[in-house]
Amino acid sequence: MQKETLFVCAECGLHYRDEKTADQCRQWCLQNNSCNMAITRFSVERSKKMEADQRPEGETRVFDRKAHWEKIYAEKKPGEMSWYQEDPAMSLRLIEERGLSPENRLIDVGGGASVLVDRLLEKRYQHVTVLDISENALRHAQARLGASGNNVTWVVDDVTKFTVSEPYHLWHDRAVFHFLTDEEDRKAYVAKAYQALVKGGVLIVASFAMDGPTQCSNLPVQQYDAESIRRPFGEKFEFLREEGELHRTPWGKDQKFGYFIFRKKAE
Ligand SMILES: C[S@@+](CC[C@H](N)C(=O)[O-])C[C@H]1O[C@@H](n2cnc3c(N)ncnc32)[C@H](O)[C@@H]1O
C-alpha cells in the first residue's frame, strides 16, 4: 500500500494532507496559544472525528486511553515530548518543602518517563512509586535508571482504578489530572487520591493554567486556577497554596502551568 505524506503542525501536533494548511495551523497556534477550529477541521485527526460523529448510532468508537499513551511512548523519545523537563525543579522543591522523612512513601502518578524519580532517589527517599497507564513510558525510566530502578515500585495502571496496597504520605501529579475532562473520571481520581493518602497526606497537582494550552498530545485538557481546582478537590482536601510555572517545550514554546498543593482532610 502506498504511504500518504502528511504535514504536521509543530505546535499542536495535528496532521494535514497539505503543507499550506499545516503552516496556517502553526502560525495560528503560535500567535494564540490555542487551535483554530476553522483550520483544524481539515486535519486528519478532526476529519476522522467528524467521520465518527456521522456514524450511525451504536457504532461509536470508544477512546482507548491506554492505547493512546502506549503509542505515544512507542513512537517518540522522552525528550521529543512537549512535557519533557530536563530538570523537574519545581516539583522537587515543592516535595522537599513538605519536610518528609526518607522512610515516607511517595507516589508520582502519571510519572511517565519523567526524571523526577531519579531526583527523589538522589534525595534518599526509600519508598517511591511511579504509576503510569503506559508500560512503554515506565520502560524509558527503567532503562535510564538501570539498577537503581530496582528500588522503585513501578505500577502500570489507570490512576482512577489502581489498587492501593499501603497509603502514601505524598501524591504528585504533573499534567495528568487535567486530561480528565469527564466528571466521573475526575470523581474517581479524587476518591482514589483520598483513599491513597494517609491522614494529613500531601497532594500536589500540576495542570495547565487558565491561559495555558487547551490541548496536549492531541487530547483536550481542562485548565485550572486556584479557584476552579478547589471544585473537584475542596471537599476532601484543604487547599494550601499554588505556584505558577512557565514550562518551555523542547522546541521552545512556553506553556503556563499551575501547581496546586492540598492536604488531606480528616475523615
Ligand atoms: C503529559 S504526560 C506527563 C508525564 C510526567 N508527569 C511529566 O511531568 O513528565 C501525562 C502522563 O500521564 C499518563 N497518563 C495519562 N492518563 C493516565 C491515567 N488515567 N492513569 C495513569 N497515567 C495516565 C501518560 O501515560 C503520561 O505519561
Low-confidence stretches: none
- End-to-end distance, in Å? 60 Å
On the 0-100 scale, what is the average pLDDT?
A: 93
Q: Structural class, from helix and strand content?
A: alpha/beta
**CATH fold descriptor of the largest domain:** Rossmann fold
Rg from C-alpha positions? 19 Å
Number of helices: 9
The hetero compounds bound to this protein are: S-adenosylmethionine
Estimated helix fraction: 25-40%
Give me a quick take on this structure.
With 267 residues, the protein is α/β, with parallel strands linked by helices. The protein is 31% helix and 25% strand.
Could you give the topology of this structure?
Blueprint: E1 7-8, E2 15-16, H1 19-32, H2 37-40, H3 44-53, H4 65-75, H5 89-96, E3 105-109, H6 116-122, E4 127-132, H7 135-145, E5 152-156, E6 168-174, H8 183-196, E7 197-208, E8 215-216, E9 219-220, H9 230-233, E10 237-248, E11 254-264
Parallel strand pairs: 3-4, 3-6, 4-5, 6-7
Antiparallel strand pairs: 1-2, 7-11, 8-9, 10-11
Bound molecules: S-adenosylmethionine.
